[in-house]
Amino acid sequence: MTTTDTGIQAGEQRMLIDGELQLTDGGTLFDVEHPGSGQVVGQATDATVADMARAVGAAWRASENANWARDIEFRFHCLMQLHDALDRNKERLRRVLVTEVGCPISVTGAQIEEPIAEVKHWAEHGRNFEYLVDTGIHQTHLGPARRKLSYEPVGVVGAITPWNVPFYLNVAETVPALMAGNTVVLKPAQLTPWSGTELGRIVAEETDIPAGVFNVVSSNANEVGAALSADPRVDMITFTGSTATGRAILAAGAATVKKTLLELGGKSAHIVLDDAHFGSALPLAAMMACVMSGQSCILPSRILLPRSRYDEGVAVLKAAMENFPVGDPWTPGIMQGPQISAAQRQKVLGLIASGIESGARLVTGGGVPENLPNGYYTQPTLLADVDPDCQVAQEEIFGPVLTVTPYDNDDEAVAIANNSIYGLSGEVSGTDVDRAFAIAQRMRTGNVTINGKSHFGIASPFGGTKQSGLGYRNGTHGYAEYLAIKTIGLPE
Ligand code: NAD
User: Fold this and answer.
1) Does the predicted TM-score (pTM) go above 0.85?
2) What DSSP designation does 110 have?
3) Assigned CATH topology for domain 269-457
């Protein structure tokens, strides 16, 4: 483990299988880069498909034999231990996160403090959940019957996570599953293995969570995630990542009809109404596009402006993007760091070029900041006059890029917003809140923000429509996803 002046922190190399922190047989490691400099800063164990099979076997045995599924108080005790241990490790976890993601240290609160608090939330929510519900007497053709609903663990849950908010999503995908009595195998993303292996280390060293109940398998190979999603011993896959991988996971699970929870890509629209307060709505829109370098699934990256105020809106966005603090993620006050990798930045620059080729006007940005030649930085970029059917308006960019398209009336704005294979989230800005609300109801998405008021949080269900996902995280709905309902008919 090393710590340098920049705060670079290498994470745990070992995975966790059946209660043991271990390297893969033969000891193969893969490199982890710091996106802020492009330098290799450490390694993680490169697990094989055979390692994944061992981890699933351990989770399956723990699910069949252990008391974990039945003892709610013990699960509460273990998850409160985990909460306290994560809190003790907080500053190390923060440095690991900035090291492998390049997320600015100034904006890590939502990715460290919040998920740690969520562990406690799920422990308490799970302890208070009503697992046996008496629905009373039902009249049937065989006479009256009492019915009880028994909420039971699904079994073995495979959790597969992406790199953009890795520690948060590792917690969000596994902790409610564990509290609901399932056993878990976590497969973190290739670019961010340490936010997963650190969780494994802390579970192994600082909690009473029994061997096999929680496993973490880091690997540089997509086949290892694919093996998890196809294993017949896995009852459920919970996945966050791209729509393309989501489709592959659904197909892999079809043979054994796996329960599948998918949170996928997005291409959300922000309808700015003609009565909106541009001076507050548009700088906030620019900030959302640049914080996290645009690597956010719920980012409203398509700005729809009324033609009557189009030039005014483009000017406000331009000024906000040109003044956005981009730079080294370790520097306090910096709000936009690098893209996660060279390949990801190349993809972003390619999509910007395709937008310009299809007739969009480059208002600002479009390249690499001159003062940041090392690492994977991208200029905040504004493309105006964007054709809603072109590639840059249809594909998820995952970069600090906003596209702007004019519209003539509310119906046209809704039609452009809904012209997408995705349906994750959306935004409406306008001073007439009833009008904005009516438009929000017409958007075919799982979530909508009105006038910057966030829809996202632990207490409210979050999920996508269309090709943005299946099922929900958060809220009581999100917890119930990790439970199967058994209906029992019995004498009155
Ligand atoms: P990705 O789909 O490439 O990878 C996600 C995970 O899937 C990784 O762990 C990867 O190893 C694994 N994987 C790859 N191929 C697999 C296969 N065939 N079978 C099983 N697992 C496989 O996504 P990414 O590039 O890491 O993350 C970015 C994507 O995640 C974006 O599309 C973004 O919108 C999405 N995302 C969605 C949400 C949400 O809540 N909807 C949140 C964050 C990110």
Assistant:
1) yes
2) G
3) Aldehyde Dehydrogenase; Chain A, domain 2 (3.40.309)
